[in-house]
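Protocol step 4 of 6: structure prediction from sequence.
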Amino acid sequence: MDLQTKFWDADINELELGYVLGENKAYNCLVCGELFDSDEIFQVGDKFVTAKRMMEIHIQMEHGSMFEHLIGLHKNYTSLSDNQREVLVRMHKGYSDKEIAVDLGITESTIRNYRFKFKEKEKQAKAFLAIMGTLNVKEDNTKAIVSQMITPHKGATQLDERYNITEQDVKKAISAHMDENGGLKSFPSKEKKKIILLREIAKNFKAGKSYNEKEINRVLKRIYDDYALIRRYLIQYGFLDRKNDGSGYWVK
């Protein structure tokens, strides 16, 4: 199971924690995929900690907090406006309504209205999860179809019919356009197939690691002659992000 699917298959508590205990008896980071074997003890400074504690330290040191990661997800997933996100960030920091109002240049009554809307969003989310839960229990065929769908990557800039991708679609596209070594035999014109192949290519880059342009090109040259085209599409479709001057690239 790839990292994106693992992230979205996690339950609410696991998403809040930022990790899952996998079948391999290792704690898996949902942000970058880092693993810590539950049978091992890890040294941090002059102390020795369990794998679970090591994962908590890893998330804090490498990712700040799961709040920061989750609040940074595209609005397609959070349904939050930019203003709502700014208010939530300050609530998380422990600001009072008055402090938030002063900081954002709005009234306290507006902040109270935000709090009300957030509670309503929470109720809507719970109701929808319950609806989907009963649907999956009663409709075996629907559940089977949903399980075959590929989870869109977190950096997807626009979710539409292009992302209605099944496991069978992936197998066909890879068979038609990639060789056994992961190189591209051809780059398709159809958007859905592009997304499938870019998704496969993006697996060559590690989440949480920063690459310079030469390192990116070195990897892509092994995959396709027109590596600049692939690099551009990886950024355009939200698989990679980069600094404005092109000095740094990373998995989005």
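Step 5 (inspection) to follow. Residues 140 and 146 are 10 Å apart (CA to CA).
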